[in-house]
Amino acid sequence: MARMSNALAHETGLTESGLTQFEADMLEFEASGHLAPEGKDAAILQRFGLSVPRYYQEINVLIDRPEALAHAPLLVKRLRRQ
């Protein structure tokens, strides 16, 4: 896949790796170790507006994408092993 211009990425809401900002935020949340004082489940609902099962469904689909691997290779490989 050819790299898209910064203007096109901005218009579509995609990061340079081809993920949406929402998807990139999900990966960053997983990488952070979820140090939220209210607990991971509450943080998922508050930050992403998703139920816990739906969040994990989304993460499982996301880590199968090459864009996710390009964005956070160590994290994605770790999550795939789990």
Question: What order do the helices and strands come in, and which of them pair?
Answer:
Layout: H1 6-12, H2 21-31, H3 40-48, H4 52-62, H5 66-71, H6 73-81
Count all strands and give the number.
0
Global Rg: 13 Å
Q: What is the overall shape?
A: globular
Instruction: Please report the number of helical segments.
Output: 6
SSE order:
HHHHHH
Tell me, rounded to a whole number, the average pLDDT.
84
Strand content: under 5%
Structural class: mainly alpha
Task: Describe what is shown at a glance.
The protein is mainly α and 82 residues long.
Name its key features:
mainly alpha, globular, 65% helix, disordered N terminus, 82 residues
Written account of the structure:
- The chain has six helices and no strands.
- The chain is mostly helical.
- The protein is globular, with a radius of gyration of 13 Å.
